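Dear H.,

Thanks for agreeing to be a second pair of eyes. The structure we're designing against is below in token form, covering all 536 positions.
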């Protein structure tokens, strides 16, 4: 069996395991917060060169596909094992319970995500000719694999290659047309320019490289033009204050600290009264700001309301519960709204829950083994309905995104609805001072770029930020900083192409790549596009 997985000699292990893994790890340095973008063309072109080596040294299509799958899987593990290493921080919060899981999480999560890459490289190897068609096909296959990774099994589109464009504000604007999945496709094309210019034992694709460079220049020029124009500006009738209390995760859920935590939030909120900002005051506290069921405690709600500025409104994250039709209790991770009169509105219940964080998959099997979710709440959370605009009297409509919901591209209908700003409440204290919070912020920026809508982000320990409709971070509070950000509410820009059409543009781009690949393959070798069964 081992011979089937690792066919050949130690040289095969080097080419299909070690070298792709090292290339993937190198490529991940192009992601935030490192933003070493030259690592990406080296790493992705190296993957093509490795696949070329596989095609030259394996006699049968079946063996080539297996070897290509191993190379793609190894590359993906390298990409994820470093860029997602921050996940281990969450298991150190209650180390006496969860620390033993760290080795499994750090290895199994990247190994599972890398299966998408393995499937893509195996599929492309079926028609590999060491020509230009391979380059277009591998980009199309990897782009579709990343789209599937963001949608299947609840989806986890963290650290898509397109987020490497975070290093260039101008290139990042391309997401307003293509979305993050289309931008991922373009980033992959640009990253393969070295492989287009030089293929050991293969044929260079100079014209394809020229077209790719022209596309890169046009996207950069278009983004520069978009950033240079006068933006939509700021509203003068709404003033938003983001409170970052920086409560350590080890203390956040301790009942004996509830009074201290509440006092810190109220003290920080009191600063809003004296900051001199004009416009109706809106205060935002982060996800699960207080270790209480605020919806069930009217005295606590009144205490909070008394601490608000005149005509002020508080938007904050909280846990709430309600009876289900069957009689048992449901628990929700919610966004609530409290006004100066003490009235409370349930604005939104989190729709995308974190597996193993907010609910335990296969609970009937895993719970008896002693496993439980990370959030110390007795019941698993219940998923709410899909996000919908929230209307508060006297304020523009907003869309609430709780925690990692901000990494998912929004529906194309958002721009056409009554949404004028996005509110992202999160608790990144789980991830300490690792790369996780910086990556989370960078990905949230792209939701603003895609939709042309500003985003106000309140994080417990950081990074809180005010982001305009072009993804520019106007203000921020870094990790561990206690403070308040106050700003007039940024205005939305006009609807973007992505906001109107969503991933339809991505589908058209993929169709173009596939058509181009087939065209190149036909010129190269008509036999290479025969049905799979005839070649195996």
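And this is the sequence the design step returned. I haven't edited it by hand at all.
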């Amino acid at each position: 069996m081992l011979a089937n997985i690792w066919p050949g000699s130690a040289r095969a292990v080097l080419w299909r395991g070690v070298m792709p893994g090292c290339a993937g790890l190198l490529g991940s340095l192009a992601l935030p917060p490192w933003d070493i973008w030259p690592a990406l063309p080296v790493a992705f072109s190296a993957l093509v060169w490795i696949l070329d080596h596989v095609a030259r040294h394996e006699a049968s299509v079946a063996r080539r596909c297996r070897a290509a799958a191993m190379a793609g899987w190894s590359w993906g593990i390298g990409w994820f094992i470093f860029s997602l290493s921050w996940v281990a921080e969450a298991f150190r919060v209650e180390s006496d319970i969860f620390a033993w899981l760290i080795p499994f999480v750090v290895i199994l999560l990247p190994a599972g995500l890398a299966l998408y890459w393995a499937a893509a490289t195996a599929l492309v190897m079926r028609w590999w000719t060491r020509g230009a068609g391979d380059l277009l096909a591998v980009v199309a296959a990897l782009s579709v694999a990343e789209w599937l990774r963001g949608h299947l099994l609840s989806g986890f589109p963290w650290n898509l290659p397109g987020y490497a464009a975070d290093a260039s504000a101008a290139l990042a604007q391309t997401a307003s047309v293509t979305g993050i999945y289309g931008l991922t496709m373009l980033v992959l094309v640009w990253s393969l320019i070295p492989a287009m210019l030089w293929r050991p034992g293969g044929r260079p694709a100079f014209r394809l490289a020229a077209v790719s460079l022209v596309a890169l220049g046009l996207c950069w020029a278009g983004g520069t033009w978009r950033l240079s124009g006068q933006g939509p500006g700021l509203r003068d009738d709404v003033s938003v204050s983001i409170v970052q209390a920086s409560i350590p995760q080890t203390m956040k859920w301790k009942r004996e600290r509830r009074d201290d935590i509440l006092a810190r939030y109220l003290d920080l909120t009191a600063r809003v009264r004296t900051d001199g900002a004009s416009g109706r005051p809106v205060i935002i506290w982060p996800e699960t700001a207080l270790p209480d069921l605020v919806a069930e405690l009217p005295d606590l709600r009144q205490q909070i309301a008394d601490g608000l500025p005149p005509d002020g409104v508080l938007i904050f994250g909280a846990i709430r519960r309600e009876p289900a039709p069957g009689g048992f209790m449901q628990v929700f991770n919610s966004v609530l709204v409290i006004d100066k009169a003490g009235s409370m509105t349930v604005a939104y219940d989190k729709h995308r829950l974190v597996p193993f964080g907010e609910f335990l998959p296969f609970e009937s099997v895993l719970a008896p083994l002693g496993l439980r979710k990370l959030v110390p709440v007795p019941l698993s959370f219940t998923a709410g309905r899909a996000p919908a605009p929230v209307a508060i009297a006297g304020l523009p409509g907003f869309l609430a995104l709780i925690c990692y919901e901000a990494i998912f591209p929004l529906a194309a209908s958002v721009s056409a609805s009554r949404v004028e700003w996005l509110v992202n409440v999160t608790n990144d204290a789980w991830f300490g001072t690792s790369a996780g919070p910086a990556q989370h912020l960078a990905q949230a920026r792209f939701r603003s770029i895609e939709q042309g809508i500003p985003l106000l982000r309140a994080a417990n320990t950081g990074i809180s930020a005010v982001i305009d409709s072009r993804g520019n971070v106007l203000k921020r509070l870094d990790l561990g900083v206690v403070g308040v950000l106050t700003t007039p509410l940024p205005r939305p820009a006009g609807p973007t192409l992505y906001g109107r059409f969503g991933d339809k543009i991505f589908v058209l781009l993929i169709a173009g790549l596939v058509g181009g690949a087939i065209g190149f393959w036909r010129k190269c070798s008509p036999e290479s596009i025969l049905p799979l069964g005839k070649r195996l």
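Two observations from my side: The radius of gyration is 25 Å. The domain at 236-492 is CATH 3.60.110.10 (Nitrilase/N-carbamoyl-D-aminoacid amidohydrolase).

Warmly,
E.
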